[in-house]
Input
Amino acid sequence: MSGHTRALRRRQMKRRRDQFQNEDIRKNMGTTSALILTHVLSRLARNSNTMTYKAFRKRR
Output
């Protein structure tokens, strides 16, 4: 039972966190999207050029 309740609680926490993140994104859409874009691009830049394109296409 304890394990089950723990899983349930974890699921609720995750849902709550997702809700908060969504609210934040809605609040300041431009900045968050720009940050995410820059982060993704910087991460892709580390890979080889051929990989970056494939990964980028997959992400979008």
Remarks:
- The mean pLDDT is 71.
- The longest helix spans residues 2-27.
- The helical segments are 2-27, 29-46, 49-59.
